[in-house]
Each structure stands twice: as structure tokens, then as C-alpha cells.
Specification:
Helix content is 43%, strand content 16%. By secondary structure, the protein is α/β, with parallel strands linked by helices. The chain has a single domain, classed as TIM Barrel.
């Protein structure tokens, strides 16, 4: 592994609460202070243009996440990728799009769509590559085979979302022991949990192992790789969107009983698992992957302090303080990322 190039690490740049553009200026300020670039969600060149002024100055290019329901097999989907790539020339480092069921049900048609997009991108002077994200819950080997199939395409890469991989595998492993049960439908206060907690945690560890294996397999293909980093646990209830991942790496899952002498459960990755993921991502790679700390906000508020002036026109600053707390969590997770990266680099 090369030690001369530091990894590009990004944070989400978006409004996570109701309010005006002061929230985006707050996000820009906190991302710059943390040394993070930006990944944005945009569904049109106009949205990209509107977000570009808020790009942190510490990163030359943004990553753009396209709509989650984008269908690459349709003319509309192909057209949107083309228009976003054209609008992003010189200022976008990658376009991220979710994988889709046709990657398995219609593999030849899906690959042909990627070939067409690769050809379209190759005609541009400085095109952002298109990164296919693990998102719909394929078995990890299926996604690895998908990436292997498009390896010859110069402008198509992969995005490994470790939480998506881990939760999908944890669900499969738990259901193999508890048929018909979706572990993500349980919660820490579920009366069945004290008897089944061992099976839950084994499923969680299986999820971590699957994410690390897939990361290593994709990295070994030598393709351009972007990663979404966040923690996960099927019992988590903190997400405002009801998902079990996109968690901080720093917070265990509280439970109302003791397990191995603690009143909490280890998350899927935590600090140790983050080191393992980075080891898998960086092993024997000449090209450094890029990373986004794709962590969703949880509870809490944090005083605005040096950002107070951004909200002088706000009467109620509750939402701003809530978003400020989320950005503080991103900062702390970036500190953890840097420590994990240095740990991996020292072993290389």
C-alpha cells in the first residue's frame, strides 16, 4: 500500500433539518473544519449547480449520489447519467447510483447498459466515473461477480456500502436460525431478545465479515472504488428514517439487560471493525479508494458557537443546533477514521 497519498474522505452535504441555506453554510463550515470533502444528493444539473457553492474548499471535487430509483436500463436513466456527468466535468469526482434487480435477473442487458454509459463517458474530456453501489441486498458474491463483469469498462467503478452489505447478511444468517424472522423488525426491548441475543450478535459478526470479504474482493479487481462507511446493528432504532445502519462507529446499542457483563451490545463494526474494513480496502491496491462517512443524524443538540452569526435571522435555532450536533458526530468519526487509517498504514 502506498503511504504517499492520503485518502479522500467526504461527509454528506445536505440539509438534515427544515430551514434555509444557512444550514448548508453550517455544513460547509463544519466539513471544512473537520477536513472533509462533500458527497451531495442531486437529481438534475440545476440541483448540482445550486449545491456547488457550498462545496468545502478543502476538497477539489464532490461525489454526487443520483436518485435511488434511477433505472440504468431506460433512456431516461441513461440520459440523466449523461447530463449529470456533463454538468460535473471538472468538479465531480464520481457519480454514485444504486444497483438494481436487473443486474441479476437481466445481467446481459444490465452490462450492455453499463457499456453504453462507459462509451458515452469516454467521449468527455474529464468525465466523473459512474460507481455502482451495493444497495438492494444482493448476496455479496453476486455483487462481486457483477463488478468483475464490468471490470473492463474504464469509466465504471464500484461503491461498497459496508452497512448495506452487513445488514443484508445479518438478516440472512439470523433467518437461517429463526425461520421467518426478520431480525431488523426486533428492537432492544423485544421480550424475545434475552434468549436470542447470542444469535443476534453472531448474525451481526457475520455481517461484518461479509462486508470485509466483499471489500477485499472488489479491491482486488483493481477497479476505481468508492466506499460508504457507517456502522450498523439490526436492533438500532435511532434513525429518523427507520433503517438499521448509517450509525456512528462510536456508540454501542443499549439494552435493558446484561450481556457479557454489559448493558449494551457491540455494533457491527465499531472502531476495531473500521480498521478491518480499511485493511480490506487498502490491501495491495495501487489506487487509493475514496470514502464517505455516510452517517445519519440521531438525537441531541449542540450550541452553534462560532456559527452563531449564520443564524442571526432565525428566531428558533433548534433545527440548527440539531444539525450542528450531527456535524459534530461526523467530525468525531473522521477523527476515528484517521486513527484507523494510521493503524493500517503502520502495519503495511
Amino acid at each position: 500500500m502506498s503511504t504517499a497519498v492520503l485518502p479522500t474522505v467526504l461527509g454528506p452535504l445536505e440539509k438534515r433539518a427544515d430551514g434555509d441555506d444557512a444550514l448548508l453554510w453550517l455544513a460547509r463550515l463544519r466539513l471544512e473544519q473537520a477536513g472533509l470533502g462533500a458527497e451531495v444528493y442531486a437529481s438534475s444539473p440545476q440541483q448540482l449547480d445550486a449545491l456547488s457553492p457550498f462545496r468545502p474548499r478543502c476538497a477539489a471535487r464532490m461525489v454526487v449520489h443520483l436518485p435511488r430509483d434511477l433505472d440504468l436500463l431506460t433512456p431516461e436513466g441513461q440520459g440523466l447519467v449523461g447530463s449529470m456527468a456533463s454538468a460535473g466535468e471538472g468538479r465531480v469526482g464520481a457519480l454514485v447510483v444504486h444497483d438494481q434487480p436487473q443486474a441479476v435477473s437481466e445481467p446481459d442487458a444490465y452490462l450492455e447498459a453499463l457499456r453504453a454509459l462507459d462509451k458515452q463517458l469516454s467521449r468527455m474530456a474529464d468525465p466523473p466515473p459512474l460507481c455502482i453501489e451495493y444497495a438492494i441486498g444482493l448476496e455479496a458474491p453476486q455483487f462481486a461477480r457483477l463488478v468483475e463483469r464490468f471490470t473492463p469498462l474504464q469509466h465504471v467503478g464500484a461503491c461498497v456500502d459496508i452497512g448495506h452489505v452487513g445488514i443484508a447478511e445479518a438478516r440472512r444468517v439470523f433467518a437461517s436460525v429463526h425461520p421467518g424472522q426478520d431480525v431488523c423488525s426486533w428492537c432492544p426491548t423485544d421480550p424475545r431478545l434475552p434468549q436470542a441475543v447470542g444469535d443476534v450478535q453472531r448474525a451481526v459478526r457475520a455481517g461484518r465479515n461479509a462486508a470485509c470479504r466483499l471489500t477485499e474482493e472488489v479491491a482486488a479487481l483493481g477497479k476505481l472504488m468508492h466506499m460508504h462507511l457507517h456502522d450498523a446493528h439490526p436492533l438500532s432504532t435511532v434513525s429518523p428514517w427507520g433503517v438499521s445502519d448509517h450509525l456512528s462507529f462510536l456508540d454501542p446499542i443499549a439494552v435493558p439487560f446484561q450481556h457479557h457483563g454489559r448493558w449494551s451490545l457491540d455494533t457491527m463494526f465499531g472502531p476495531t471493525g473500521l480498521v478491518q474494513v480499511l485493511e480490506a480496502a487498502l490491501c495491495e491496491r495501487e489506487t487509493m479508494p475514496s470514502f464517505t462517512l455516510e452517517i445519519h443524524p440521531a438525537q441531541g443538540h449542540r450550541p452553534l458557537a462560532d456559527a452563531e452569526a449564520l443564524f442571526e435571522h432565525w428566531r428558533d435555532r433548534t433545527n440548527a443546533e440539531w444539525m450542528n450536533q450531527w456535524l459534530f458526530v461526523l467530525h468525531n468519526n473522521h477523527v476515528l477514521f484517521r486513527a484507523a487509517y494510521e493503524c493500517v498504514r503502520s502495519r503495511a
